[in-house]
Amino acid sequence: MGAISLHGFILSTYRSGDPLTVDGYRLRKADLKFSGDVTPHMRWRISFDAAKVLTLNKKVAEINDTATLTDAALDQRSRMLQDAALTYTVDRRLGFDVGQQIIPEGLEGTYSTDKVETIERTMFVSERSRAVGLGDVRDVGASANGFLASGSVEYHLGLFNELGESAGTTDLNPQKAVIGRIAIHPSFLPQFQFGGTGGYGGGTPVTRHERTGGEAEFRDHGFTIRAEVMHARDGLLRRMGWYGLGAYRANPRLQFVGRYGRWDRDLGAEEALTNALETQVTVGASYRVEGSAKVALNVIRQEFPYVSNVRSGTILLAGFSGLW
């Protein structure tokens, strides 16, 4: 039996001032990742997020003018299992992943949490009140990944049960979802990359899923400038979000960040929190105390410009994390 590698990441946050959430601490992430070799070309990995909270999917019907719970089932996406996959690497140009894995959707949505410059990911990735987030989601399937043109072209192409809706379970319909992401790394401008995401899950107009997105980033030893946009169709629901981010690393330990983002949960409605356009301005800083231990502070101005009955607010978010 080969050696087994163990890695972990813990993120705790304290949130204050959010008009939609009670002030308090939260265990945001508690990741454990195990991995090892099967053969010289094949590796396995299993990861868990012990901070996940199990949730129920509920069905309610009106019986005799009374709302009655008719069915309840565990949401399989809320289980702590994250990745459970095998990776077979041919060479740098081609590798295959089979199992439950992050789908190739967007740039920030494929970053590990410890590499994200802000405490919370951008809204279209982290906000999941309707359907699933547009990034940092997993599903069961197979993907091909690699680099072409001497490393200038990075590609990811996968065939999955769904686009994040069926993680932890079997597919409930015969249609499969295909999604791909491509990123160009120009050899003559090594600090730049740009690319896009496209995805399609067939079915009727009520069950169809589509994804389209674009990304661009400049990164060197001192600065990061990144912008992304993502549009989604989930049945009759259409969603869209985008953001622009800038980060400055004053030294290897200290980083300052600013981000502006817009997220519309439902392009066809503007009536309540569940479908309102939301904007956020985030400014903050982080400091690596020792090794990978980091403290961060973000101030977030959150507004819902077209819904008068949802209060805007200024949120203070503190994060404490460690990676090993």
CA radius of gyration is 20 Å
For the record, the CATH class is Mainly Beta
> What is the CATH architecture annotation?
Beta Barrel
Q: Into how many domains do the coordinates divide?
A: 1
- Largest sheet, if any? 16 strands, antiparallel, barrel
Low-confidence blocks of residues:
none
SS field, number of helical segments:
1
What's the CATH H-level homologous superfamily? Porin
Which band does the percent of strand residues land in? over 45%
The percentage helix is under 10%
How many angstroms does the end-to-end distance come to? 23 Å
CATH topology type? Porin
Average pLDDT level: 91
Structural class: mainly beta
- SSE succession: EEEEEEEHEEEEEEEEEEE
Major sheet: arrangement of strands? 1-2-3-6-7-8-9-10-11-12-13-14-15-16-17-18
Shape: globular
Please count the beta strands (DSSP E, at least 2 residues each): 18
Write the layout of secondary structure elements.
Blueprint: E1 4-16, E2 24-39, E3 42-49, E4 56-63, E5 66-74, E6 81-91, E7 94-102, H1 123-126, E8 138-148, E9 153-160, E10 177-184, E11 192-201, E12 209-219, E13 223-234, E14 237-249, E15 254-264, E16 277-290, E17 293-303, E18 313-323
Antiparallel strand pairs: 1-2, 1-18, 2-3, 3-6, 4-5, 6-7, 7-8, 8-9, 9-10, 10-11, 11-12, 12-13, 13-14, 14-15, 15-16, 16-17, 17-18
